Amino acid sequence: MYLVESQFMQDKAKYFAGVLSAMSCMLSLGIPMLCLMSKMDLVKDKKGRIRREVGRYLDPDPNLLLEDVNAQTNEKFHNLNRAVVGLIEDQNIVSFLPLDVQDEDSVNTVLSHIDNMMQYGEDEEPKVPKDMDEGELQVARW
Hints:
This protein is mainly alpha-helical. It has helices spanning 12-29, 55-58, 62-72, 78-91, 104-118; strands at 2-5, 35-38, 96-98.
């Protein structure tokens, strides 16, 4: 698992650094990885819903963020920003799953993805209900 804090979304340069770091780990380790955007409770609106613009950070589309980064950086870094965006687009292997530890559904979703990645429970035999063992169907009587 690779964790990036949701505060990285506020500073686009940090966000790109987090994506590149996650991509580097994925390529170097060569094992299945789950990237999580943690502390999602800090990016909720007043009604307790995750803000709409967060979606563009969970599944990164760097071209949408390039203009924001270029506005924050010196013009001499614009070519470097385009190169970083090109690298992220070429690999396109990083996406984040939101994690809000205060939301049970969020935690269950993350655990489900982890179980799926680890193939947890794949070696167990399916359990058959007890009334089906004898081959008889239970018919409701009126």
